[in-house]
Every structure is written in structure tokens, then in C-alpha cells.
Amino acid sequence: MVRTRRFQLGVSAVVWLGTLAVPAWAQGSGAQPPAPEAKSAAPAARAPGPATDTPPGPLESQPQRTSQAVLAATRIRDGDALMRERRYREAAFAFLDAEHAAPDHVEARFKLGNALAVLGYYARAIEEWEAASRLTQDAAIRQSAQDNITRARVKQGELGASPQAVGQPPGSGPVADTTRAQARRAYEQGVQHISQRAYAPALQTLTQALQQEPLLTVAYIARGSANIGLRRYAEAAADYQFALKLEPDAASPLYGLAEAYRALGRNLEARELYERYARSTAADVRPELKEESRQKAERLR
Fold first, then answer.
1. Pick from 228, 230, 218, 217: which is nearest to 191 by CA?
2. Which of 121, 133, 177, 183 has its CA 20 to 30 A from that of 213?
């Protein structure tokens, strides 16, 4: 389990939770959350194919898991800053990144729950607090999580059958049509940059897309490809892993994650992912990559 340090949150970012004698990041204040934006769902755009030009061997000196822990700590700091600025959707995105980089990070999960609650996603927030409680032996944190869960369930009862009450994730519930349209435009621009091998601009525009629609799966896949192009393999792995969490049956993240793991020297895991891609019948499978996956898996035996 990744150890959680008692970071000082610095402000009352969790704007509706109660204050307890617990670590600063497990506290909050008593104001009400902002009203969610208008809800509307739109079909996901098609993601570009996974990156295919990864070097064949380990190119990073530190273990991949260390890189992921560093990434998690960085994204938690980003989320804290965004919460202070009341940019709650972007903060949720940052904490999602941190959780995915280090799934056992108590602070990341607790703070993600806080951000989701402020946005009105009470069922999802409860899941995060319950996970944080299971991952820690700190009695004060567990009590704070339980108190938050109790408050969230009261809110669920007040909201009845609203999208928030049934736990719709950010990006598929209260995201305004205009915001979603902006996210799709940024995504499409990022894909265009990737096709031109302009990976740095692609990374920037795809990150903008995800800030506007935090659970846009195709944007995670595309950003993973941009990170591969920039040899940012730990970050690419985090993007592909989270895409798989959002769409477990998708094939593109399997190949991309295999490429990232192969570059990081995690060959056994890479081989398994190549084999899974070769067996996949998902709609986004590319026939030429199925054969390539079989060959790469065989070479890693």
C-alpha cells in the first residue's frame, strides 16, 4: 500500500463536509456545493489507434512504480490548487489521475471523493471514501470517511433519482452541452496533432479536452499515444490503464499499455497485454495490429 502523508490542504476546499480532528486533507467546511450544470450525453468520438513506434527495451532508469507514485503526488498537488480555485471538475480530473497512478493511495481516493461530492456525484464519492477507509488503519481518517458517507447518503435521499444520486461519472452527467462540445473539439485537434507527429501540442490539447470532460475515454487513449511519442512511458501507462478502467472491453488501451510496459521493461505484463489484444474481438481492434501483437508476444517469451 502506498503510504499517505498528512499534507496540509491549506483552505476549506471540501465545501460541504464537516470538520473533524483528522489530517488536514480529510477535513472540510460546511457550505453547500455548487449546482451541477445541465446534463446531456453525447456519443464518444473514435480514438486514434494506439501508438506503435515504441522502442523495444527499457529506457527509464527508475522503476515504473516509482514514477507512478511521483505522478500521483504531483497530480494531488495539482488537484489541491484547483480545489482552492473552485475549479472542481478539473480538480476531480487531477485526483482521478493520481488515483489511477497509485490505486492504493488513501489521500488520492479521499480527495477524489471530496471533489466528486462537490460536483454532486454522491454515489461515486461514497465509493471513493469507502475505498479510502479500507486502505487505511488510521481511525480518524476512517471516521471522517464514514461521516462524509453519511452526509452524502442524506444528499442522495434529498435528490431522489437525479443523475447524481445514481452515480453518473463526470463527463456523462452534469457537463453542459457547450463544455462537452469544447472538449470534443480539443480532442479532435489533439488527434490531428498526433497524425502529424506533433506530440507536445497533442498532449496540451488532449489535456484540455479531459479537463472539460474528465471521463472521455477516447481522449485518455489519444493522450497515451501522445505520451508514448514523447517517451513519457509512465504517464502513457496511466492514461491507458484509466481508459481500460472506463471501458474494460476496449482493445486500443491494451495495445498502448503493452507498448508502454515494454518500454519500461515490464515484459511479462506487456506480453500478456499483447496476447489479450490478439484475442480481442472489440470493435476498435485493428487487424494488422492483431498479428503484430502475436509476434511481439512471442518475442517476449
1. 218
2. 133
